[in-house]
Fold this protein.
Amino acid sequence: MAPPIGPQFEARRCLLDPGRFIALEAVSPLLGGLTKWAKGLETWINNARINSCETATALVSSAAEATGYDSQRACAKLAVTMGVEADVDAAMRRCASDSSSILASARSNSDPNIANQAPFVGNLTWKALKTVDTLDDQAREVVMSILGTTIYHPPESNRDPDSIGPSITTVAQLLYGQSDAGGGNINVQLLKCNNYTECDVVTRGDSVHEPLVKKVEVLMRTISDSIRTRAAIPNNSTAVGFVNSTSLPVWRMLSVGNTIPGSGLADTMIGNYKEVIAADYAFTFLSQFSNLGLAALQKRFRLTKDQRETALELRGDVQRFLNRLQQEQSNMYKKVASVSTVAGDLERLERNLRSNMSAHVLDMLGYAHRGVQ
């Protein structure tokens, strides 16, 4: 009578199948032919009560990824795409001895469709931030300082990734800095780039920096002055980007504040709301990074499993900082009653202003036509 074909026999049959050993040997000579390794694996599969053949097949795939087989396939595909080799077989042979130069050539290729197929190399956070075009490079450095980053080196350098932790760890440090530097500036420890194109070398150091609250105040005063003098603001300016990046009615607030020349209303509003708006602005651009930048990074570049996991960890770090920032913003709102008070103040001011203006002035400001629009 033939022996029963149980899980142990099935596991051994699948793992000892010549085709799978050939596949294992193709991945790495260290894996093929190790019967002791297979025996231990057989026991693990049996205890886990899972399909042995599926597991053995999956292990070949996982081993391939772990030993760089995937990058070899990527190299071969790029070699054919760039015309270095005529077919995949020749490309695989070429990549076995010369993958570093082929991948380097692909990464520097002017065609983004080719460059982005190469395994990801570079500053993970920075590459993600570069996809968010509403941020300038100084703001990107601030975000990187909040989150930290990981820098991946080319395979030929034989270097482990450099993990760099954040230098800004609290909301207060983001909004007000770590110490006073005088002249309205603050000392803050930032992660600084060696260049703003690749940012492949990052240094940590103290620098005199304009605090976010002051930056927001300066932008609000710039907008206020433009409204007061009726000067045009370019569509691609930082001021317009700032207005579009906040959920609060900044433009309307400053328009109402400048309705009566010399009243000081605009200055009062800027003083009352600059901290709330700064927190809102920070929340918005960090949200953009989390939702747009990291998502674009994973779609645009060829990330390994470890790199994808690092990107997910970054997204989690962003969300945790956003939660703290939201709490700080909530505390600031309480200082000025609530966010609805902003709109209420504006409505009340507009009513008071309209009641004291002539019909001619109201018509010039556009109030007379609001009822028919």
Observations:
- The first strand starts at residue 122 and ends at 123.
- Residues 265-300 form the longest helix (36 residues).
- Strands lie at 122-123, 149-152, 162-164, 179-182, 185-193, 202-209.
